[in-house]
């Protein structure tokens, strides 16, 4: 009996800043859980980060290392997961350029994710061409690794649809399935709100708790956390929905029963924000303490981290170059070995 | 005394069909002349050909070899000129993707060459994204080879302007001249008209004389060549301007004095089209005969041709990868060698 090879997951992060609790809840936790049952590739997406940070490559460079630290600190195990640097994989650039010939400008402009992000960044027609092209680059990433599962937020699902369109178009032209379709793995837990209650935790909005937060920073962040503005005295009944402290407890407190009791007491009246926040502070300290410690240990051993990146990138170089060669051959591009 | 290195020329052709007399007059002749005083790279531009031929990669592949045959047949000497295959140079794809971050969508759309070609091909918004992006790809080609001279037709001059904009933007950001600006080398002779008198000789228009034309094909092409529709009898005065036979004689007949005499006689009256065409037929047979012969010799020795392409492509791979590494370092992208 031959063993079925494990499904391949491609995931990763733009290297524009260190990761935070939102990443932990939305993706990092999952990666640590999935790495033993799946073949997992983590892409340090510095090329993609450059599509809207070309003016600041230093930030993008520096954060390749920082994000790698985050991965290792939360428990991504380089013995089973492959961590690699996107800009050092030339086959991804080759596949991207090739795929751009199979996508119309109109189709890229119609992509809802791109549309939203163009709006959010205030780009309009001044959008860098590379930014507009990034759905083709993501199709290259996904297919180069032969990934069939791509963990993404719901808002990124159109990227997977765009990838599969390219895959189908190439496979149809070639006449066999050289490329694999992928499907989005939408995380069970929704997106973690920022400490201010805004929908998205984000460093640039100043509402994030970084994975490297100290105990003091955790206390401070929880202290200013958004609860129920109508809940003025401990004895008042309070709202649980939209109360960030409860959202975080739901996400990180393993004692589900205790959280259920707290919710009931809060809604009835008789539980003050201070007591509630004190519990969350303890939970987050217990969660982030070991991550922070591991992170600073790793930071003191850059050789180890660089070695992980070297090995992972080399493995990814081989794998993605192999895919590019298969696509070249299947499409019938010029081959110097022939005669 | 150290020798100043010769200026670097980058030139090449999209591999969509074998070359014809128009290419010979407009560029091939020049390349043969320039190769001894310049460092010359000839790019078999199969990646660029795919930007509007993604549906027919077989045509693009086949013509890599055909165009290489044309180069060698007209006298491009692989001992001094480097002939290489574009799609086998991953650094060009890497540089293209990088440059796309430094060009806005609006700027690409404003490019007059792109605008004309979109119109000519009837693309509109259905334009393949890769086609829209090709000015960035040409900037990658030119800068990767550190070329400072790029022989192009007048209609392609905006591509050089776009390249130099990218060069200046990167150099400014980096703070030193890592990339070189290039200038267009506009050929002295204008574009050769088709045998039907239309402005451009083109295989797809059916008005071209291929470099591999047989004597019979040359005779036939000259027979149906556009002269002066008002010149009915040999004794009538005829027009020289717009008369394709004279345009070709100007381009290919080395006996300038004899051509001047013929023009005078034709204008005065007393020289028939038959006699005139007979001279051009002889001139073209003398020009194309040896090219055709050399071409068919080379076609019988594909190993030699493939070896030229292997060596040229390997040299170009090293050179372009070196440029990519310099740009990476200058921009400060992530480096696995650091720690």
Structural class, from helix and strand content of chain A?
mainly alpha
Question: Biggest interface: chains and residue counts?
Answer: A-B, 62 and 61 residues
What CATH calls the topology of the largest domain in chain A is Rossmann fold
Oligomeric composition of the shown chains: homodimer
Helix content of chain A: 40-55%
Biggest sheet strand order of chain A reads 1-2-3
Radius of gyration of chain A: 22 Å
Strand content of chain A: 5-15%
Annotated CATH architecture of the largest domain in chain A? 3-Layer(aba) Sandwich
Name the shape of chain A in a single word.
elongated
Low-confidence stretches of chain A: none
CA-CA gap between termini of chain A: 41 Å
Number of strands of chain A: 5
Largest sheet of chain A: 3 strands, parallel
Mean pLDDT of chain A: 93
Tell me about this structure.
The structure is a homodimer of 339-residue chains. With 339 residues, chain A is mainly alpha-helical. The first copy, chain A, folds into two domains: 8-192 and 302-331, Rossmann fold (3-Layer(aba) Sandwich); 212-297, Tyrosyl-Transfer RNA Synthetase (Orthogonal Bundle), CATH 1.10.240. In chain A, 55% of the residues lie in helices and 7% in strands. Chain A has helices at residues 21-34, 46-50, 57-74, 90-100, 105-110, 112-121, 129-132, 134-144, 157-174, 215-223, 244-252, 256-268, 273-299, 302-331; strands at 8-14, 39-45, 81-85, 149-151, 183-185. In chain A, the strands form two sheets. A three-stranded parallel beta sheet of chain A has the order 1-2-3. A two-stranded parallel sheet of chain A has the order 4-5. In chain A, helix 4 runs parallel beside helix 14 (302-331), helix 8 packs across helix 9 and helix 10 packs antiparallel against helix 13 (273-299). The interface between A and B is large, with 62 and 61 residues.
